[in-house]
Amino acid sequence: MGTITERRLKDGSVVYTAQVRVMRDGKKASASSTFERRAAAEAWLRRKEAELKKPGGFEKLEGARTGGATLADAIDKYTKTSTKQIGKTKAQVLKAIRSFEIAALPCSAVTSQRLVEFAQELAEGGRQPQTVGSYLSHLSAIFAIAEPAWKMPLDPAEMRAATTVCKNLGLIGKSKKRDRRPTFAEMNKLMAHFEDRWRKGRALPMHKICAFAIFSTRRQEEIVSITWADLEAGRILVRDMKHPGEKEGNDIWVDLPPEAERIVKTMPVENSRIFPYTTDAVSTAFTRACKLLGIEDLHFHDLRHEGVSRLFEMGKTIPQAASVSGHRSWPSLQRYSHLRATGDKWAGWAWLDKIAPPEDVEE
């Protein structure tokens, strides 16, 4: 009754098309859907075959063939017609949702029960509560506009009910604030490893990028996006700075500490960008190095946390720290309020002088 066809796309990835065809009393009914995972295609096929065995199942399938938008259709409509730029994370999440069985359901069939089952499937797949919550949050944006904008019957009340149930079951929750900071020993090991690979011509100058991340407090995606044109004495322009409510147009001037400025001056002007690399290259290099060196649970973003912590330990006020970090909401810096002004622990760090010798600094 049902078949699954494997197809390889131009980019080398494989997709699986599940199809079910039925003929009854001279009438034909069929349905098909494509998934990125074979398991999702098999699950969809089992559900369709089970529905056909129920009273009215054939008629329902025949009706679905002639109309009825699916959740996947709604996702596609949202990504194509949204006037706001969809962030990278949101785009990746919505693409991932399309590979699950729930995406093949007609919009009218995406009930709170189905959404809870989807959340349970995500959790069973190893995703943390904060990640599951992110999936439902991004999906809820589509539920809010699908019916009034495109007449696709996604009910926001079903999403609200599912979210409440998922919270009560512990399937979704807020992410925990990380407080991981690199030690001197860990940073020295990383710097030695990265410099060695760079001098041998095997990799990008990760030792400079990591040091810049600490002293500038810049995020990974910001570091690789800054151009020479964005640089002025003592400050830089960070374009489209990360903001929870807006994805573009957040161009903000931030102070550039002298240590970070010293590192910038060691970079060759061979590209419009100061650090002309990709976020994937930086992330992969950092993760691999930590694994190789036995450094556990250290993320590249922890270097920004270290940099902001350093500012408070140097005795900077919240406004002064924000002028460097770029935080527009001062309450978001309250997590650092417990830090005491103990001085700059990175003062005299040998690796800074090694990668950016003082004599390279203009008097």
UniProtKB/TrEMBL annotation:
Q: Which GO terms describe its molecular function?
A: DNA binding
Q: Which Gene3D superfamilies match?
A: Intergrase catalytic core
Which ranges carry the Tyr recombinase domain?
177-351
Q: Name one GO biological process term.
A: DNA integration
Q: Which InterPro entries match?
A: DNA_brk_join_enz, Integrase-like_cat_sf, Integrase_catalytic, Tyrosine_recombinase_XerCD
* Sections of the chain in a coiled coil: none
Q: Is the keyword Repeat in the record?
A: no
Cite the entry's keywords alphabetically. DNA integration, DNA recombination
What protein name is recorded for this chain?
Integrase
Q: Which organism is it from?
A: Paracoccus kondratievae
| Upper classification of the organism | Bacteria, Pseudomonadati, Pseudomonadota, Alphaproteobacteria, Rhodobacterales
